[in-house]
Amino acid sequence: MTARPDMSRLSKARTNTDRYVSFHWKNSVKSLDQRSPEFNVGRINQAQP
Questions:
Q1: Is the separation of the CB atoms in 14 and 20 below 8 Å?
Q2: CA dist., res. 29 & res. 45, Å (int)
Q3: Are the CB atoms for 29 and 35 separated by under 8 Å?
Q4: Is the pTM here over 0.85, yes or no?
Q5: Residue closest to 33 by CA, chosen among 24, 46, 42
Q6: How distant, in Å, are the alpha carbons of 17, 18, 22, 36, 46 from that of 31?
Q7: What are 2-35's pLDDT values in tens digits?
Q8: Per-residue CA distances from 49 to 5, 17, 34, 40 (Å)
Q9: CA 4, CA 21: separation in Å to the nearest integer?
């Protein structure tokens, strides 16, 4: 009974950490894609008719 509040707090912290890590991982991948020349070339080619 006494371990249950600790478990819920631990699981909540883990979900918050997962959300934080996934959010920043997506942002870092997005910035990496925008910096890479392949991404820029693809965007330029798409912009041309």
A1: no
A2: 21
A3: no
A4: no
A5: 42
A6: 21, 20, 14, 9, 19
A7: 556 666 776 777 777 777 777 777 776 666 656 6
A8: 60, 44, 21, 16
A9: 26
